[in-house]
Amino acid sequence: MAFVTLDKNKxxxxxxxxxxxxxxxxxxxxxxxxxxxxxxIYLRELLKFDINQICDSRVSNLKMIKSINPLIETIYIKPPxxxxxxxxxxxxxxxxxxxxxxxxxxxxxxxxxxxxxxxxIMIELGELREGVMxxxxxxxxxxxxxxxNIKVVxxxxxxxxxxxxxxxxxxxxxxxxxxxxxxxxxxRQIEFVSGGSSVxxxxxxxxxxxKGINHFRVGETLFLGTDVYNNVPFEKMHSDIFSxxxxxxxxxxxxxxxxxxxxxxxxxxxxxxxxxxIGETSNRAIIDIGLLDVDVDHLELVDKTIKIAGASSDMIVxxxxxxxxKYKVGDLIEFKLDxxxxxxxxxxKYIEKKIK
Length: 356
Known about the structure:
Blueprint: E1 3-6, H1 8-24, E2 28-32, H2 40-46, E3 53-56, H3 59-68, E4 73-76, H4 85-91, E5 94-97, H5 100-113, E6 117-122, H6 137-145, E7 150-156, H7 169-186, E8 192-197, H8 201-205, E9 215-218, H9 220-224, E10 226-227, E11 232-233, E12 242-255, E13 281-287, E14 299-301, E15 307-311, E16 316-321, E17 332-337, H10 339-347, E18 352-355
Parallel strand pairs: 1-18, 2-3, 2-9, 3-4, 4-5, 5-6, 6-7, 7-8, 8-9
Antiparallel strand pairs: 1-12, 10-11, 12-13, 12-17, 13-16, 14-17, 15-16
């Protein structure tokens, strides 16, 4: 059976590095835990750390977090769907919002549950994902401030996730100015200016982060040690907290070129093969994971002498060439994972999760 491991010592090291960085700069930060897909084993490791807030995009994951530590502040990090309103109010202390009608429903549900629900209103700064347009934000805040059982605790923005628009000093200054305008216009204190994410961290080192930005939401850099802005690992962080292992279930010397009329495979792909390889053979291993579990484009073989030959829904074929390392049936093939690879594999219920 395939399994993924989390190295808890490297995980703690990454957390401590970021926690120290943010504390030195007087920045509050929330861990974005969605990569863990609500896995209780891994969430318990995360909740051992000195954190005040956890963000997630699934109500069921927030429910799991609250069952482990009811006192942790939870944030639902996408605009809530109408059918999720009750769960969001029940399990999220804070939610990110962009639609007045949704906030109105949150207000009514919070009243039913006897709660004050906190919100961070997201502003559009060019990424064209979620966010209130700049021309509308003053009127938007005015309407929201009238709602009962709702407390506006922040203003925020999202960058990079959809089209790759990078944060810079000017965009984040703009976010800070929005916050100052709201406070001046409505005489309200806005606690969080949530303009930071993993991709914004390099601006701290470059002294380009405006002082007004006081809240970060961080996932990828914590779990993978990635400098997302430059798409390279941070030197002082670990990029191999997670490892994937899959067992060889067949190993046979086979031809290098398929025999028969070629159509398309399960993903609709066409293949061409080097005709010079007709009659040549190589050692081919089948391992017990497939496209149902992970996208092979987001897997990296630790052993650089072998390569992925192809994949179907339940199996991946590895070309061992001459099999110089003497792999055999039952041996494990190890992979490193990038962010999307980790996200997919941890979301698979067929992959066992272990602590290393």
